[in-house]
Design a protein that fits this description.
7-stranded mixed beta sheet, Rossmann fold, alpha/beta, disordered C terminus, Dna Ligase, domain 1, single chain, about 700 residues, globular
């Protein structure tokens, strides 16, 4: 059965998208089918939660053994309910009783039902087939969430159609986050983590097997709500792909962050998902690409998803490339913060301003150097540390502060008192611990969150959450253009940077066919006619390279390549054939810490057989680079492995030395020579591409 096609046929009669979400999150009336009289049991929790946590609508109960359940009058069967008495239902019955109960609820005018029971996993089982027949009925008006789910939760309205164990601890704190999780157990754990850290929740949908209502449809409805600013999703597979265009549009239109954990990426994970829910899980590579283009922000796991949701809720909106001020009780923690912030493209780590330095001196005197990040390594001086963090958050040159504390050095009560007493206009703080096994007590976390202090277990995860919130995944969430080589350098540009005697395979610019013919006549055939590489990086994919073996083929080859180059704004060059040799890829990269380094990898067919690389640093003397190259697996191959002819490793090393010397002061971030033919006597560089050096975020 094509469930998606059947759903589309009846959609006009059903509550969908925003209308469905509004119905479930704030129903005027609810019926609990299969309610237990024991509020400690899962079947008794929904009725207890509706009663305990502020639901003001009418509540009906169906229980054939009791006339009163949880203080509410009960009827023995669904058909004993008045027509149109209830808008929504929660159903907790054995699988073989669920289809008939849904049919009866539909006949009584109920518009949405949450089915929390399992037992529908086998497609050929009688309950599953009967449920499929009900869902395919063209005249039904009842939407079904589940089965095999924990249920739905809406904190402000008190519409708790769920049996979550979290609400057994007390009421959930209201917040601006919505969660949609196919796994009920994982969603329950995520909710617990958010609330424990002082965050709140607006709505939670546990969707289970998604035989009718899927996660993307709910996402579209949730994004339309004013009480939701951020959404977290936990998915195994997408069951309602027909809603993806609407979800993509909603993400773009609202600008709200949608953080996603997508599991079942491995082969074994896909098999496990299929066994657990009966879903068909597709190619992880395709899934990744499509969801990035749709605007979802991928996060690696549940713990990181909790980090993002708590941070988004407590910190709020951040400006583009927010300025991070950082402080740590540990020097190592300060280094970690500096490294992680500088590695996050969406974050910046500015120098401290003069006014901030003056205020910090009032707190720290001359005990430490003032720089960003701050190292405040004083044991037992909680006030000093907390005042430093508060000063950074009240300074004009930071948008958010990341701080690392420890119970070894600090009194958490004092720390909380000082941080919660900051000015309301102060920047938010993300507080972390040196170890996630040294957490701040839970009773302090809500107070901190109310003062815009989010708590994330480790400094690495704190910076990661801020980076994702600020947009580090934004570039991933948008499809990259096929060719955007602004700032790239082609073969002629790189040749201009190198000495005239650099060992190129001979080449010349060929602005017309006559120039190409003149060079070929001088060298002899074969020759290569190709793009210079200024805008075309992958010549073969565009047909921008041709090997010509005779004069009678030159005209057609030149015209074909020149046409492609004209379309892409590139130039044509012609290059002499140089015979055979060992192919090597040489990339010279400007590392921000180590300066120039060369990365060498096997090229040609050896790239498929030898997954290896060798790194040569410019700071080593040439003889040390040569020794390192010779000792690598690539060097062994080049030196005459198993009786092969030896290649000129010394000439390759000399060419790399020339590259280091010539590029040392040039405005380039990398140069790639691919391939370099290593011959028995000498080397010949065939092709080159490079990138201009980046400065302050600009190409």
């Amino acid at each position: 059965m094509d469930r998606h096609r059947d759903r589309g046929r009846v959609m006009a009669e059903l509550a969908t998208g925003s209308a469905l979400v509004d119905l479930v999150t704030a129903p005027r009336s609810v019926v609990v089918v299969g309610a237990s009289a024991d509020p400690a049991k899962p079947a008794g929790r929904p009725l207890a939660y509706l009663s305990r946590y502020g639901f003001t609508g009418d509540v009906f109960v169906v229980n054939p053994r009791h006339s009163v359940v949880g203080g509410y009058p009960a009827v023995p069967a669904v058909l004993d309910l008045p027509v149109d008495a209830a808008e929504a239902a929660i159903v907790n019955l054995p699988a073989d009783q669920v289809p008939s109960a849904l049919h009866d609820l539909d006949s009584r005018g109920v518009r949405a039902a949450v089915v929390i029971g399992s037992g529908f996993e086998r497609p050929d089982s009688a309950p599953r087939q009967e449920l499929n027949r009900f869902l395919a009925s063209p005249d039904r008006r009842l939407r079904v969430i589940g089965p095999n789910c924990v249920g739905t939760m809406s904190v402000v309205s008190g519409a708790h159609l769920n049996f979550s164990s979290v609400l057994g601890r007390g009421p959930a704190r209201a917040g601006s986050v919505a969660m949609i999780t196919q796994s009920g157990a994982s969603g329950n754990g995520l909710l617990m983590s958010i609330l424990r850290r002082g965050g709140g929740i607006a709505h939670w949908f546990s969707t289970g097997d998604e035989f009718d209502v899927g996660a993307l449809e709910l996402l579209v409805g949730v994004l339309a709500r004013d009480d939701v600013r951020t959404v977290g999703l936990f998915l195994e597979a997408i069951t309602d792909l027909d809603w993806l265009p609407a979800a993509t549009e909603a993400i773009a239109r609202t600008g709200k962050r949608v953080f996603l954990v997508k599991i079942a990426d491995s082969d074994l994970g896909q098999l496990a998902a299929g066994g657990h829910t009966g879903r068909v899980v597709g190619s992880s590579d395709i899934s990744h690409a499509v969801l990035k283009q749709a605007g979802f922000v991928r996060v690696p796991g549940i713990a990181e998803l909790a980090d993002c949701l708590v941070t988004a809720q407590v910190v709020g909106e951040l400006p583009a490339r927010p300025r991070i001020a950082a402080a740590s009780v540990s020097g190592a923690g300060a280094v970690v913060l500096a490294d992680r912030v500088q590695q996050a493209p969406a974050l910046s780590l500015p120098e401290l301003g003069s006014s901030t330095r003056v205020r910090l001196r009032e707190v720290l005197a001359d005990r430490v150097e003032l720089h960003n990040p701050m190292d405040v390594p004083f044991l037992g001086e909680t006030e000093t540390f907390a005042r430093t963090v508060a000063t950074l958050s009240e300074a004009p040159d930071s948008d958010v502060v990341v701080a690392v504390e420890s119970s070894l050095a600090h009194d958490r009560e004092v720390l909380t008192e000082i941080l919660t007493a900051r000015s309301p206009a102060a920047s938010p703080v993300v507080l972390s611990h040196l170890s996630e096994d040294d957490p701040i007590p839970e009773n302090l976390l809500a107070r901190l969150a109310a003062a815009r202090v989010a708590v994330v277990p480790t400094p690495e995860r704190a910076v990661q959450a801020l980076g994702l919130l600020a947009g580090d995944a934004g570039a991933e969430a948008t499809a990259e253009p096929a060719e955007d080589l602004t700032g790239y350098l082609g073969l002629p540009d790189i040749a201009d940077l190198l000495p005239a005697d650099f060992p190129w395979a001979p080449w010349v610019s060929a602005p017309d066919r006559a120039a190409a013919a003149e060079a070929a006549g001088r060298w002899g055939y074969p020759v290569a006619v190709k793009a210079a590489g200024r805008t075309i990086a992958h010549r073969s994919e565009l047909g921008a390279v041709a090997v010509v073996h005779g004069e009678d083929h030159l005209t057609a080859a030149y015209e074909r390549v020149a046409k492609v180059c004209a379309e892409h704004g590139d130039d044509v060059v012609v290059q002499r054939g140089v015979g055979s040799g060992q192919e090597v890829l040489v990339a010279v990269v400007r590392d921000p810490e180590y300066g120039l380094s060369a990365v060498l990898r096997p090229g040609g067919v050896n790239a498929e057989l030898l997954d290896d690389q060798v790194v040569l640093w410019h700071g080593w003397p040439p003889e040390q680079r040569l020794a390192t190259l010779r000792e690598s697996r690539l060097g062994v191959l080049l030196s005459g492995y198993r009786g092969q002819a030896a290649s000129d490793v010394e000439a390759l090393n000399a060419a790399i030395t020339t590259l280091f010397t010539a590029l040392a002061d040039q405005p380039v971030s990398f140069v790639e020579l691919n391939p370099v033919l290593v011959l028995a006597d000498g080397v010949r560089a065939i092709d080159a591409i490079g990138r201009k050096r980046r400065v302050k975020g600009r190409a």
